[in-house]
Please model this.
Amino acid sequence: MKPAPFEYRRPDTVEEVLHLLAEYGDEAKLLAGGQSLIPTMNFRLAQPAVLIDLNAVKGLDSVDEADDGGLRLGAMVRQAAAERSALVAEKVPLLAETLPFVAHAQIRNRGTIGGNLAHADPRSELPAVMLALGASVRVRGPDGERSIGAGDFFTGFFGTALEEGELLTEVVLPPAVEGGGQAFLEVSRRLGDYAMVGVAASVVCDPAGRCHRASIALLSVGSRPMLAEQASACLVGERPSSAAVLAAGHAAGNKDIDPQADMHASVAYRRHLATVLVRRALTAAFERAGCVMGEGAS
Amino acid sequence: MGAHPYVGAGVVRNEDAQLLTGRAIFVDDVHLAGTLHAAFLRSDFAHGRLLSLDTSAARRREGVIAVYTAEDLGDYWCHGPLLVPPPPIAGLTFNTATLVPLARDRVVHVGEPMAVVVAESRYIAEDALEDIVVDIEPLPVVVGLEEALAPDSPVIHEALGTNVAAHAVQRKGDYEAARSEAHTVVSRKFSYDRGVAGSLENRGILADWNPRNEELTVWDTTQAPIPIRNGLAERLGLLQSQVRVVAPFLGGGFGPKMMMFYPEEVLIPWISMRLGRPVKWIEDRAESFFATANERLQLHEAELAVDSEGRILGVKDVFLHDSGAYDPYGITVPINTQCTLLGPYRVPNYYSEFTAVFTNKTIVTPVRGAGRQHGVFVMERLLDFAAKELGIDRVEIRKRNFLTPDEFPHNHEILFQDSAPLVYDSGDYLPAMEKAAEMIGYREFLEEEQPKARDAGRQLGLGIVSYVEGTGIGPYEGARVSVEPSGKVQLATGVGTQGQGHFTTFAQIVADQLGVDVTDVNVATGDTREFSWGTGTFASRGIVVAGSACHEAAIVVRKKILALASEALEAAEDDLELADGVVRVKGSDLSISLGELAVRANPLRGTVEPGAEPGLEATSYFGPARGTTASGVHAMIVEIDPETSEVSIQRYVVVHDCGRLVNPVIVDGQIHGGVAHGIGNAFFEELVYDDQGQLLNASFMDYLLPTATDVPHMEVAHVETPSPLNPLGVKGVGEAGAIPVGALYAQALEDALQGAVEILEMPLSPGRLFDLVHGTPSDPEAAS
Model:
């Protein structure tokens, strides 16, 4: 379990990173927290010729309030730092709630927010949170800077919309809105394992108590994190009820997702977990939104 | 100064300061100048003809010193030893296929070594592995146990012409006759799978041949340093005195490090001799899943015949056992299954037949519990089903069948793994069961707590099971006790140590005899230069066999001390007492220290009388006639989330009997660790092979060991039924905790599910539990 030989570069600025990316193209890999990349290299599943270490790059690790009241997280913000940040807890409680589920404390001490998103593991928690919140990422590349919405960012199995030569620099999370509530739940074999199924739910209720928006993002149910559209359709425009969240759970588990079996969970079990977790997460999210749940007609 | 007697007291461990401050030396901590590093090229195929290996590019790589294939080994290439010849069971079939150092023309499991690269660093060595061009012609693979025995199955060892590694029948009485008179017969099929030992420290070897004084020193993560020394000397054509094997601190053993000789173990010392430089190989975790022995599946068809009161008339069990690709450890594991199945029960008639099968997988040798889990699972499950069928309480059916104290020694009339008859030396099972039932609140749970929980929609279940464990088998161990002029005591023994607390428990035993502080007894173990005779640490035998040898040696030294002190103090021996490191004339202040006596016993002038020996030293050996039988009862309360099938343990109770406790804190620690292993076996760990013999989860990301959040607080109590077979009255405890946990989970989960399913398999998981309850397919290939 020793990596193949590689060249190691440790640039100080984003400009230098972009320069190196331009120079080495797909022979290079970016090293952020290294919690996925280094094991992959030690197993020799990845053998990059050049490793560009981002850990000395300045200006990528700040946590700031955005002009619109949302949150801007530098790509190199450690997951543990975000987990402990009062600003994160205040502005994006769903992120604060989810971070303890991301692997283990030791891993979060090194792992970064940006690295996690760019890795785009379909079993990872943070991509689902981004989807549920309608977050976006800022990237810099040879042609300047651009913003990519979470819905467009995760393109497939470990695939993102990042183009060659681009660096993810920042994560932008929208401000909380009146009548909003969120919740994250997952079922994993052990604390810290990849979830067999996880769900990040974000709902918004209008002053009349009707569901205005419901974003339900699932992880570990396909090749990428995905939004359960048919589950949302059960809720939007409706007054939240236990019958409606139950229906949303069934829609998510039976219609929205197309999960695969693995050694930890069969297809049937994954569908069932999605059904249960979506219902539970929505119930919690509506409660946090201050929405009164009716019994509803079943 | 600690309080005597130490034996029985929860003395703080002598070795903890070293271990907890990181000063303890493990194999990979030994750094010698000029060390070379080895890496092994391992087969990617489970079964194939090895057509060619082109190592020329690897040899040319800068930093590579040597590359060896089977061909390069010349006469050194040969099959390894049959470590444990099978017991003389009448009618036994036993087919031997022992390990080879490097595959020559055939590979028989994924991970089998084919070549070894030696380089200036491990990095370079692994780079060079990728330079080797391998040509393997894949052969059909043998994975399943039943398939392995099919007439059209490919055969793994052509010379044997069969995949049968062993076939054995052991009988007591006449099962069929008993069955014909039975009121009820319950029969089921069971499958019980086990996994890796999961030692924190993988295997590792550092060999250093010194060409100037012609001595070979080998640091090895072995549980058996002396047999390794003996075998290496023989194989390398050296005197045993030229070979020193050191097993320093080990990060866990649990059985697989008792296997000998692994290919790496015979190759690394030989390479060091060829190259005249130290050579190190440290097994990495990915290798360990393929290169280190583990335990796996057994398939049982079993039945239990009982009378109308639930009294056992007989048991019949026919099972298949996975041996893996070779069987150097003989049939120890299936024999343990066969013998341990009988449990603490009176079984007048028993028929047990097993077939051990070669498969294209890593070898199977004992892992903590060593096949005992499998047997306990079958017996406890059968009793549960019989109880249910007869409407008898599950604790009651066990009580009715327990052997009573007046039935010991109890001869089960079959042979155990040590070739001796399976005779239980002592035991008292009823008090342990009653204590466990009381501790877990058995009645209250069933009558109040559970119905209340069920009314609230909660799934709570209780399990309570019994087991026995044959421990402390021979052949022998030895110990040498010497009092030094400093007054400190040196104690040397041959067993290796892997975290069991030997530095403390052996010291307690000796300190009690010599009246010294336990911290003044320095224990040397695991170094063949310190002690030359012995076998190793396995089969829950350290305290029983080596501990008894320590005790006997200390008694002889005590006699020498008293004789010499009697002379020095001019007092009768009966008037002397040993305490606080001095011999004192009782009721006076006349005394002499052990240090002074040690000097007197080894004079520079004068004479040591003919027939006497110098020094305050003695060496003793202890060899028990047969093993001693420990026992226990585990009970737990679990809760299943009815929606997600997640299982949490609410309470866990252990009542254990390992005879006299030498150090209750250490014993409890052994039980805690064992239960953790058992929980892993029951609900987390599983080696998942595909139909090509590829292990699909060879990392700790997918092979799940239970963590601190998965292992509950345990309430542990003890019953002490001394063994009559050794002077300390002790029994082994190393494996105990791991043994009954699968059976316990099965009963508790079934109870929680109100009998909605029968649990006939281990391991389980939330997903498997869900699929069992809902009848949905679990196999990834079937499901996709």
Remarks:
- Chain A has twelve helices and 14 strands.
- The longest strand of chain A covers residues 195-205.
- Residues 163 and 206 of chain A are 39 Å apart (CA to CA).
